[in-house]
Amino acid sequence: MISATRTWFKRNRANFAIGAGVIGAGYVATQYVLSKVTETRQRMSDERIAKENLRRRFEQNQEDCTFTVLAILPTAVENIFEALPVEQVLEELQTQRQERLAKSVGGGPSEVSTADIASAPPSLADGGDDKSLASEGFIHTSQMAESSLESPSPSTPRTKMNKVQLWNEVKISSISRAFTLIYTLSLLTLLTRIQLNLLGRRNYLASVVSLASPAKQDSRINLENREDDNYEQAYGNDFETNRKYLSFSWWLLHRGCKDIMEKVTAAVKEVFGPLNPREDITLQRLSELTVLVRKKIEGVTEEDRKNQKWLSFLLPPNSEEDYVLHAAGMSGPTEISATTSPALRRLLDETSDLVDSPPFAHVLTLLLDSAFSLLIDTKIATLAYKIPPPSASGARVVEIVGPGTGVKTKVASTLATFSRQAYSIGSGGNNEYLTTMEGVRDLEAFAAVVYSSNFEFEAPEAAASLAADAEEPVGGDATLVDVGEIEAASDLEKAWTNALAKEDGKSVTQ
């Protein structure tokens, strides 16, 4: 029996070998498939975790942008209020009115300045505007206190103006101040988004590389600072560079806002100059004049707005960069060429590219649209024209502002609202104008483009290569903009298009 069994195995050994081979191959294939499935599942899990981590970092970064804007906005507001002291002019108006009343009571009507009355329009000669200051709510007690702090010293000479000139000054200053604050807030919002998202991108990349690097087995303490092992420094994520880069917002807060104010004031004088403070004006007419001011500042056509250059308001020229760092307390008076750091230079050049890009102009226009709509269509309409907001009674709003009705109010009433809203626009606390701007979805898309683009240039090798290229003379002073301006612009356009497409897809699915 044993020999028969041995004979049977010999006769069927080929079949056994084939069967064993098939079973072995099946086992190996099964294990391979299972390992691939496990690997794919792990990779998907890692990608999901990475995306969630990136999303949380991005959202936290946007919250930091909001807090940063609210923290540094009062600096620009102080400079603008000091340059356009509406409350101080109003105090002078009230002082002149009290003097005229005292003269009229003490010496009769003949002692009142006839030149003042003769030069003033009939509607201004009766002093009705001065009496309406309190009823219009033009100035609060707290604002009076602030204006007294901002008023120049008694030794400062001031040209004596009559009543008409003072009212014209109130008109121009009130409107210009509100408009200037809107432009400053919009530009500061975009600049802060660019700065913090550029730094956030570098922080994220440095943290990813640090986590992906192998852990050191040597537990000994080494006091030597080895740059090769310092991923934070290698990827440009050093505290000193970041601090200097963020300090460049000083230019907008102290210089840029004043340049904007000059441009806005010139446009307001040209458009609103002929208006009489006691003249009746409709909300539609006020909106048309506001749009006309914006066209003179931003451009008439879409192409003009796209080509409008805002960089000079946001960042200083190269010759002023060291001065800005010194003024912001980032460098000593004897320190020379503080911006020669390749990492800082690259951050400033990329910021300049982003500011000069068409997406920046597009988003800025949308932010200004939202802020001016809140000011004119909501605040002025509600407070000056007594029109209920749309949420209160949609049918009533249509009935009031519809064609043929033409609700009117005094220009002085709108000036009162402009003056009060300046404090809301410049508020460093609960700022509804900033909240409205952050509701513009294209702002988040723009921030996402800044945060997620140009990762390849953050590697130390790429940064060194670009810095070396930037130092080569190419027809003058070469910067990173000169090296890859066309490619960077096209990449930004592609990223911007993709970001907007994703936002559109979200809105459709929601």
Structure description:
The protein has 510 residues and is mainly α. It is built from 23 helices and two strands. It has a domain at 54-147 and 160-210 and 231-331 and 346-444. Helices cover 73% and strands 1% of the residues. Helix 2 packs across helix 11 and helix 17 (358-383) packs across helix 19. It is elongated.
Strand order of the largest sheet: 1-2
Q: Quaternary state, please? A: single chain
Query: What would you call the structural class?
Result: mainly alpha
Shape: elongated
Q: What is the typical, i.e. mean, pLDDT?
A: 75
Strand percent estimate:
under 5%
> Using only CA atoms, what is the Rg?
33 Å
- The number of strands is 2
Transmembrane segments: 16-34
Region (Disordered): 100-132
Organism: Tothia fuscella
Pfam family, one: Peroxin-3
How is the topology of this model organized?
Elements: H1 2-11, H2 13-83, H3 86-107, H4 114-119, H5 122-125, H6 128-136, H7 141-150, H8 163-212, H9 231-234, H10 239-246, H11 250-272, E1 280-282, H12 283-298, H13 302-307, H14 311-314, H15 321-327, H16 342-355, H17 358-383, H18 394-401, E2 408-410, H19 411-425, H20 432-438, H21 441-452, H22 460-471, H23 480-509
Antiparallel strand pairs: 1-2
Helix pairs in contact: 2-8, 2-11, 3-7, 3-8, 8-11, 8-16, 8-17, 8-19, 8-21, 10-16, 11-12, 12-17, 16-23, 17-19, 17-20, 21-23
